[in-house]
Each structure stands twice: as structure tokens, then as C-alpha cells.
Specification:
3-stranded antiparallel β-sheet, alpha+beta, 294 residues
């Protein structure tokens, strides 16, 4: 037999896909691994850590410093070997996690797709184009913050914040102000845009609702008030609504909160508003002011 006529069918390299935005899952050739396949937390975190790296590799020392910073080098190395063994069991290949030449490699010499890395690349390209429609499309692919199950792990914090900032930039570039205000309640430009939009449409109550939303977030999160531009918009919202008589001093926030409640859907808003305070403080006058605004 002429051996030159023989052909060898070489199977295509297995593809690994890692989903890190809003969840953690790994798929091999399109088939997701069951959660119970992961025998230990450190095996899971080892794969997650390597997924976030360029070319999915790190030095052994970097991996140990990230996952076992409290251990001596020898103990850290032992834990790394154990975690790598468990990760190989989960991934189903003896060469899925390789320790060689002082490095730790995930899925070497085979294609690896990581949704978080793809999102960042697409986001940077879209922001460079400055095309609102392209930015909106990329923003829609952001399915959640990076690795929510590893929320307090130091090795993921910087990357999570970087990706989250990319998402906020995409929402700004595409003018998705409501979604931006929901994700980041302290974002003043988003609330300013929303107040301007509602005022232009003649919806003063809606504009007041966005003002109250921002004011509460800033007070609770930073202990500050909205900036001068937003205060000016607030003054436009309430212009002509005040009753005759002495002006309210220090009551703007209370009026805005009441207006926001009144604007809510009937199934969601409070059943009543209770004003409490010492006699003579102005509860009746404030009630009349709220009634006028309503």
C-alpha cells in the first residue's frame, strides 16, 4: 500500500469560552460545564484569574501572590499545584492548566474566548469611533459586572472597575441617560440631561423626580448637594409653584421628595406622607406648599 496516499484526520482544536460578566461559566466547544464540575473554590478562581490575563498566562509568583498572599512561597506553590489539579479535573483535559518554566498557562495552543476581554476591546473601538449607535450596541452586550461571585477579591477589583467605567462611558456616548442614572445614581450629568429633557417636554413633576433621585443619592453616598447647574434647573422646575407668603427656607429638598412620591405610579407610591416636628415649625405651611405643587 502506498503510504503517501494515507491521510490523517486531525480534530480541530477545542475552543474554550469563558463567561465572566454577570456570572461565571465555562464552555468547551459550545457545551457549558455544569457548576458541580468545579471541585474547589481555588480551582475556580485560578481559571478566572488566568482568563483575565493577556494570552491567559501568569508567572507562578503572580498567581500565588493573587490567590494565596498570606502564605509562604512553598505553601503557596503547594496550593497552586492542588488548585491546578482540580481545575484540570473540571475542564476535562490533563493539559488544560499547565505549570511550566515558572509560568501558569490556561488552555495553551488552543483558542480561548473571554467575554470580558472581548467587551473591553469592542468598547474601546466604539468609543474611538464616537458613533452613538455603535456605542449603544456594545453597551447592550454588557451583561453585568465582572465576576459578581468574587466581589471582594482584590485581584478582580481593578478590572471590574475598569470594565464598569467602560460601560458608563458607552451609555454617555449613546445618550442612555435613564439607564446611566439607574446604574450610577450619583451621576450628575445624566440627571441634568434628564431634567432638561423633562422640562423641555413640560413635565415639571418628572424633572423634580430626577432631582430628588440625585439629591438623595448624593446625600447618602457623598454627603453633598447637587451642583449649581442642577440647582438652577430645580429652581426652573418650581418657578411659579410657590404659594404667596413667606418663602420656604431649607424646604426645597422636602418639596422635591414629596413631588417625586406624587409622580410615582399609584401602585408604587406611598399611601400617605407624615410630617413630624415641634409645634410652630411650619408643618401646615409645608403641607400647603406640597398641595400646590401636586
Amino acid at each position: 500500500m502506498d503510504t503517501n496516499l494515507l491521510t490523517v484526520n486531525t480534530p480541530a482544536p477545542s475552543r474554550l469560552e469563558a463567561f465572566l460578566l454577570g456570572r461565571f461559566s465555562v464552555a468547551i466547544d459550545g457545551v457549558e460545564l455544569a457548576a458541580e464540575r468545579w471541585p474547589s473554590l481555588r480551582a475556580t478562581q485560578l481559571v478566572q484569574l488566568l482568563c483575565l490575563q493577556p494570552r491567559q498566562r501568569l508567572t507562578r509568583d503572580e498567581v500565588i501572590d493573587a490567590l494565596w498572599p498570606q502564605l509562604e512561597p512553598e505553601a503557596g506553590a503547594a496550593n497552586l499545584r492542588k488548585a491546578a489539579h482540580h481545575a484540570r479535573q473540571a475542564l476535562g483535559r490533563h493539559d488544560s492548566v499547565v505549570l511550566q518554566a515558572g509560568e501558569v498557562l490556561l488552555w495553551p495552543e488552543r483558542p480561548v474566548l473571554v467575554d470580558a476581554l472581548q467587551f473591553e476591546q469592542l468598547a474601546d473601538a466604539a468609543l474611538g469611533q464616537r458613533d452613538p449607535s455603535v456605542c449603544a450596541d456594545v453597551a447592550a452586550s454588557y451583561s453585568g459586572d465582572l465576576l459578581p461571585g468574587a466581589r471582594f477579591e482584590p485581584w478582580v477589583e481593578a478590572t471590574r472597575e475598569r470594565l464598569r467605567e467602560r460601560q458608563l462611558q458607552l451609555l454617555r456616548a449613546s445618550g442612555q441617560w435613564e439607564r446611566l442614572a439607574q446604574i450610577d445614581p450619583e451621576d450628575e450629568p445624566a440627571h441634568r440631561a434628564l431634567m432638561q429633557r423633562e422640562l423641555a417636554a413640560g413635565n415639571r413633576a418628572s424633572a423634580l423626580r430626577w432631582y430628588a433621585h440625585l439629591r438623595e443619592a448624593l446625600q447618602e453616598g457623598l454627603g453633598v448637594s447637587p451642583d449649581a447647574q442642577i440647582q438652577a434647573l430645580y429652581e426652573r422646575c418650581i418657578a411659579g409653584l410657590q404659594s404667596a407668603g413667606p418663602a420656604f427656607i431649607g424646604r426645597a429638598e422636602l418639596c422635591a421628595q414629596a413631588a417625586a412620591w406624587l409622580e410615582m405610579d399609584a401602585t408604587e407610591r406611598p399611601g400617605g406622607i407624615v410630617l413630624r416636628g415641634p409645634a410652630g415649625i411650619g408643618k401646615s405651611a409645608l403641607s400647603r406648599e406640597i398641595a400646590i405643587q401636586a
